[in-house]
């Protein structure tokens, strides 16, 4: 594979046709890091859809395509995720190499989905059909998070987020900062 994601912002958006005057307010500053990352992600996803056989048009894109895309990205991952049988399973910093696969880290996927979800609507996609907002993806991300937390021995709780894997409380943001600095495990 050739990933030329490095290199500075060589003007690669040469094919930019004038965007539809969507509801987004014009932002008078140069693209932030987030914005340019979002644009890159969006292009990558579009390319992925075009490379499907048969190609998938954006209006036909559903949560299943997005899930396939996330799995497809795993081959480019850099996060070692130990299998159940590995002696390093559950160790945050294993002392040696093993043959477990590299994956995309949950945090990367989570952030990616957030950017694509925004990009979809900014590019004219109807919010009610936003494939990145589908419940299947939420479920998938939760599974990835939990399994990686187990495999790597790293609880994903230090992220200031309310998500608490123990209970599934639907939307109850309060009462989370259990900053348990003393959990030794
Ligand atoms: Zn391993």
UniProtKB/TrEMBL annotation:
* InterPro entries registered for this protein in UniProt: ALOG (IPR040222), ALOG_dom (IPR006936)
Q: Name one GO cellular component term.
A: nucleus
Principal cellular location given in the protein's record:
nucleus
Q: Where in the cell is it found?
A: Nucleus
Q: Which UniProt keywords apply?
A: Developmental protein, DNA-binding, Nucleus, Transcription, Transcription regulation
PANTHER family from the entry? PROTEIN G1-LIKE2, PROTEIN LIGHT-DEPENDENT SHORT HYPOCOTYLS 7-RELATED
The identity of this protein, by name, is: ALOG domain-containing protein
